[in-house]
Recover the amino acids of this structure.
């Protein structure tokens, strides 16, 4: 697997278990790319939904993907603090053009005070039936919900106090050097 390079602009593609496209982020700037971790940033990026609807992201966001974890994390920089949106998903792959992963419906929203909510459990159960998620996937996802909650509580990885701010500073440096 090719590793995305710092400063490279790529897309992010989210799929569902049945192979259908779910959502596409048009442009993300790579801040760090290794075999195991990809960190990127997007700001006012065009997002296309599976039904063709489009919208623009509202604020800068740091994206975190790990090849060993069944989740990815988006840290959104808002005026009142950092909000995190965590997608339970397959580990990412990078095909040279886009980061790709399967979205498994369950999400965790984390607020600036580090409180959090598990979201979309009904959607997960519905899609689990409709798309016949194997039991092994269900077990993996449940373990990764616990792993993610542990990281949130411990303020580790992307939840560490300066993680999002430091990577956003790196993004602004890369963008200013492009001018």
């Amino acid at each position: 697997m090719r590793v995305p390079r710092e400063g490279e602009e790529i897309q992010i593609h989210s799929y569902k278990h049945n192979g259908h496209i779910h959502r596409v982020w048009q442009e993300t700037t790579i801040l760090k790319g290794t075999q195991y971790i990809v960190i990127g940033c997007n700001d006012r990026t065009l997002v296309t939904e599976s039904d063709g609807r489009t919208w623009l992201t509202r604020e800068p966001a740091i994206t975190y993907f790990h090849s060993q974890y069944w989740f990815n994390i988006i840290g959104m920089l808002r005026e009142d603090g950092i909000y995190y949106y965590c997608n339970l998903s397959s580990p990412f792959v990078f095909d040279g053009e886009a980061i790709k992963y399967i979205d498994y419906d369950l999400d965790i929203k984390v607020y600036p005070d580090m409180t959090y909510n598990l979201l979309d459990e009904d959607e997960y159960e519905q899609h689990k039936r409709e798309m016949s998620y194997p039991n092994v996937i269900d077990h993996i996802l449940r373990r990764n919900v616990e792993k993610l909650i542990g990281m949130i509580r411990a303020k580790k990885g992307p939840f560490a106090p300066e993680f999002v701010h430091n990577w956003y500073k790196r993004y602004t440096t890369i963008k200013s050097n492009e001018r």
Q: What stands out?
A: The radius of gyration is 16 Å. Residues 9-174 form a domain with the FomD barrel-like fold fold (CATH 2.40.380.10). The chain has a mean pLDDT of 97. Helices lie at 121-130, 135-154, 163-178.
